[in-house]
Amino acid sequence: MFSDSAKIFIKSGKGGDGHVSFRRELYVPSGGPDGGDGGRGGDIIFQVDKGLNTLTDFRHVRKYAAGNGEEGGKRRCHGKDGNDLVIKVPEGTVIKDFETGKVIADMSGSHQREIILKGGRGGNGNMHYATSTMQVPKYAQPGQEGQELWVLLELKVIADVGLVGFPNVGKSTLLSRVSNARPKVANYHFTTLNPHLGVVDLGDGQGFVMADIPGLIEGAAEGVGLGHAFLRHIERTKLLVHVVDAASTEGRDPVEDIRAINRELEKYDPALLTRPQVIAANKIDAIYLDGEDPVQKLREAFDVPVFPISAVSGQGVRELLYHVYGMLRNMDQEPTVFEPEFDLSQLSSGIQLPFEVEKMEEGLYRVEGPRIEKMLGYTNIDSEKGFEFFQNFLKKNGILEELEKAGIQEGDTVKMYGLEFDYYK
Description:
The structure is a single chain. By secondary structure, the protein is of the alpha/beta class. Helices cover about 20% and strands about 25% of the residues. The protein has eight helices and 18 strands. The strands form four sheets. Strands 10-11-9-12-13-14 form a six-stranded mixed sheet, with helices on both faces. A five-stranded mixed sheet has the order 3-1-8-5-6, with no helix packed on it. The chain has a four-stranded mixed sheet with strand order 15-16-17-18. The radius of gyration is 33 Å and the shape is elongated.
């Protein structure tokens, strides 16, 4: 089953916590702190796999998490880093933030491997926090939390030329004749339910990639049928070939068919109508002229090249292909790559401050930490603004939360580096 979109949850690894320990050796009566640092959390990495051409696997597994970093150890031992998680996707996959729809990365062209979510940093062990006033730090830095995100994966095929047209006009037949692609061909509407890519080889190193975009219907731009799923594959193409049933074997008007398809393209993305277009007037072997020439009608209705062809017999196909190749040679040869729009830095979670909360006795608590000591040194807590800053600092860094977990009640006393405060909510 072909699948060209999927919603998945990704999460990078948490950094390992720093360790609290003290050197204990024979003949070393007062060894200092020797707690090691925590390991780095694993990254979430997307990588192009040339052997994949669908997103079907993501329908079965929807949550992906990298490894967490290990806690630091005694004797300054560094915790092991968490394992990165490499997620393999087909070339042409666009990764979007699910909530906003903004592009995070486009796995195309030179973008074959992208780090999407960085793992959390490991926390510092207590060996980093010994000072002249605190020679026995009993706290270490917690590891940074990993980042998490729901993302939408969309596969947008990479082709130079897109074949567009209503169902059953001969696009699949044309692609199978001129390339190595082998789409199913049958006389049913919506026979093609997934894009087929084929390499058109004109010899002497000349050629291009052509995609059979599944048949469109009116209302496709509003999502009628599988409209959106089909239209997204046109976005990368440099040139569009309208394939129409010039013989009107099913009673359709080829001129009105092209107008209807162009209306759907414009509704979906007006920029699509700026792409060069060519008309392939197919099934000319079934035309029996007893009135107006349908090919001439197409030429009069549209100011683009019109090539009468028969995808079945091959008549006129060579002329069409060489004209298309000549147009492509004058265009930018780099594939269309969608630029990132989503700022991943907004996901960064600040690393927590190391601090220690201790209940010394009923109604008396002690709080210590290197940033707390430093903050008290430069903050005038006797002023209204200074004390407000002090309170916000305690709240923002989780210190008030830890005091509440330790059981503090209103009116209890908190000691911080020679200062005492009464606790009130």
